[in-house]
Amino acid sequence: MSDRANSPTTVKIDEDTKKRIKRLAKARQRTTHWTILEAIHQYVDREEKRETFRQDGIRAWNEYQASGLHVTVEEADGWLAKLEEGQDEDIPECHR
Predict the structure, then answer these.
(1) Residues 36/28, Cβ–Cβ less than 8 Å
(2) Looking at residue 5, what is its pLDDT?
(3) What gap in Å lies between CA 47 and CA 42, rounded to an integer?
(4) What is the pLDDT of residue 3?
(5) Measured distance CA(93)–CA(47) in Å, rounded
(6) Burial (CB count within 10 angstroms: exposed 0-12, middle 13-18, buried 19+), residue 17
(7) Taking the CA atoms of the chain, what radius of gyration do you get in angstroms?
(8) What one-character-per-residue DSSP string does 15-27 give?
């Protein structure tokens, strides 16, 4: 038995969406089942990345509130401009 055992799940889809999925599946020469699974996988992957990004932002905000360490917009812009020009520039140091 594989590690990824599949089990059926019921999803209610309106007729218009069902027709759109069938048209897309036909155009891609895939089954409707494959198309729906692919859409779900892509959605879950994207949302997991989005949630990771959100959690990273919350952690960074909490860390900033606790330490007060930061770089200014001007410092960050200057650093990025130098990188864009191809200069090997060190990351600006955080300060209070």
Answers:
(1) no
(2) 86
(3) 9
(4) 65
(5) 32
(6) exposed
(7) 23
(8) HHHHHHHHHHHHH
Q: Which residues of the chain have pLDDT under 70?
A: 1-3
**Owner of token pair 């990345």:** 49
CA atoms within 13 A on the CB side of 93: 2
The pLDDT value recorded for residue 4 is 77
Residue indicated by tokens 């900033």: 64
Nearest CA among 42, 26, 36, 43 for reference residue 6: 36
Residue 40: per-residue pLDDT: 97
Helix (H, G, I), strand (E, B) or coil at 71: coil
* Domain residue ranges of the chain, discontinuous segments joined by +: 15-67
Residues 40, 11 contacting (CB under 8 angstroms): no
